[in-house]
Amino acid sequence: MSNLNTAPSTPLNRPPTTTAPPSAAASAVPAAVAAPLASAVPFDAEQIKHDMKLCSDCVWGVQELRDHQYKIGEVLFDPTRPDAIIAVFPTGSGKSHAVRVIGAMQRGIHLIFIPLLTS
User: Fold this and answer.
1) How far apart are CA 96 and CA 119, in angstroms?
2) Going by C-beta distance under 8 Å and a sequence separation of 6 or more, which residues neighbour residue 99?
3) Distance from C-alpha of 37 to C-alpha of 15, rounded to nearest angstrom
4) Backbone angles phi, psi at 66, to 5 degrees
5) Per-residue confidence of the chain (119 residues) as pLDDT tens digits?
6) Which residues contact 119 (CB under 8 A, 6 or more apart)?
7) Which sign, positive or negative, has the C-alpha torsion 94, 96, 97, 103?
8) Are 81 and 75 spatial neighbours (Cβ–Cβ below 8 Å)?
9) Which pTM value belongs to this model?
10) Which of 71, 74, 79 is nearest to 42 (CA)?
11) Concatenated DSSP letters for the chain?
12) Long-range contacts from 89-96, C-beta under 8 angstroms, 24+ separation
């Protein structure tokens, strides 16, 4: 049986990371890093929207996403922006679905906790 994984052999297919002081970790991507990164990785918001819609439809059968759900993907996949965001939307607006779609589009294994309250 052949190995079908063509990704680099790093733990969980993640690029090597460096440690930074806590204050630097919370800040935005430094301009010295963002400029070369942005030029090396072309960012296309329309392609992200298309990919999110395709993933949502193929995996969960949801054919349309809302504008704010696309915006979450645009922010997270933009290499010039921070790696983490906080999305605060009303109940029933599709936050959980947006997170599932983005997780499915990423490389590697992702564990997503979506707490649901039941009475």
Assistant:
1) 19
2) 72, 112, 114
3) 14
4) -85, 160
5) 444 444 444 444 444 444 444 444 444 545 554 444 445 557 788 999 999 999 999 999 999 999 999 998 888 888 888 777 888 888 889 988 998 898 888 888 877 777 777 66
6) none
7) positive
8) yes
9) 0.58
10) 79
11) ------S-SSGGGPPP-----HHHHHSPPPHHHHHHHHHHS---HHHHHHHHHHHHHHHH------HHHHHHHHHHH-TTS-S-------TTSSHHHHHHHHHHHSSS-----------
12) 93/66, 93/68, 94/65, 94/66, 94/68, 94/69
What six digits make up the tokens of 103? 């997780």
Instruction: Tell me the one-letter amino acid at 74.
Output: E
